[in-house]
Amino acid sequence: MKVLLVLYDGGKAAEEEPRLLGTIQNKLGIANWLKDQGHELVATADKEGEGSEFRKHIVDAEVLITTPFHPGYLTKEILSTAKNLKLCITAGVGSDHIDLNAANERNITVIEVSGSNVVSVAEHVVMSILLLVRNYTPAHEQIMGGGWDVAPMARHSFDLENKVVGTVGAGRIGYRVLQRLMPFDCKELLYFDYAPLPETAAKAIKVRRVESLEDMVSQCDIVTVNCPLHEKTRGLFNKELISKMKPGAWLVNTARGAICDAQAVADALESGQLGGYAGDVWNVQPAPADHPWRKMRHPLGGGNGMVPHMSGTTIDAQIRYSEGTKKILENYLTGKPQDPANLIVENGDYVSKAYGQRDSKAAEKKEEVRTDGKA
Predict the structure, then answer these.
(1) What is the DSSP letter of 218?
(2) pLDDT tens-digit readout, 260-290
(3) Residues of the chain with pLDDT > 90: what percent?
(4) Quick one: CA torsion of 121, 127, 129, 132, rounded to 10 degrees?
(5) Using CA atoms, how far apart are residues 277 and 333, in angstroms rounded to an integer?
(6) SS (H, E, C) 93-119
(7) Helix 172-181 to helix 118-133 angle, to the nearest 10 degrees?
(8) Rg of the chain's alpha carbons, rounded to an integer?
(9) Residue 280 marked ligand-binding
(10) Cα–Cα distances in angstroms (integers) from residue 116 to residues 120, 130, 254, in the given order
(11) Is 60 known as a binding-site position?
């Protein structure tokens, strides 16, 4: 069979570090294994436009493997050209780069490596919260530029202790974020989710569920987004919702960039309605040079904690999602059933509720596995 890998170009870094598995240089560590079995493997970073290598090779590929960090966007139009495609694997978590309804129409299986990034992303969220609240980035930039002026840095630096923190989505990542925040003695931990946490789990971290999203964000000093991107969450944090947040509240999004309206976030930060915005996900990846999130700042000069999409692709996470991808391929090649926790759509139907509360024949047959934006 033909396997198409769409990964980012790791350049010299990937040549020097073989554990950078999510690159075209290191090919998830599966290149020799596939070739030894007689399969054709094509790896490319070229994914944009009609003349791209992605468009060229998708027409006869049986398996597509891509990552959330450099996704090959599989639209309905492109799917219509993929006559042999049977399996789409996300090496990592988050399959919103695929038109899932179109995949169901074609009876194409979409699967990802569930749980491969939960620790990595949860740690990144807590780091992002701290760098915003403590005004770390502009202070570091000042030092790098040769300066030393404490007052303008300290005027927008606070403690995390005694702050109210809320998560949108309390799945495997959202829950771990709350767990990691407990030692900071926050005033209160809140969550908004369509499904309540088990009572024992909620009590273990002393978290309170809020029924209304608007109500929750209005109570929070810090909001972190840990839910998936689908029709109901696209543009969720728009001008109206952000206006309901506490003036000067901080917002962290490591789920999917398109959950937040890019211009609404930039405007809110520049006006001071938001005290800061941090994350690693962008509504288009790679983000264009003129993306409003690149240079936006708070009126006091800081508040921007954006980085490339990297929270879920630490070296440790790359090892996990590479091993998971190989296991999925092994199951596919030998006809073994896939781990239900990894499946997004199969046999023309939704298996997971991670992409919205959809009517699903499969959902009636099994208990749903909780997921969130990157879990």
Answers:
(1) H
(2) 999 999 999 999 999 999 999 999 889 999 9
(3) 90
(4) -130
(5) 44
(6) CCCCCECHHHHHHCCCEEEECCCCCHH
(7) 50
(8) 21
(9) yes
(10) 9, 24, 15
(11) no
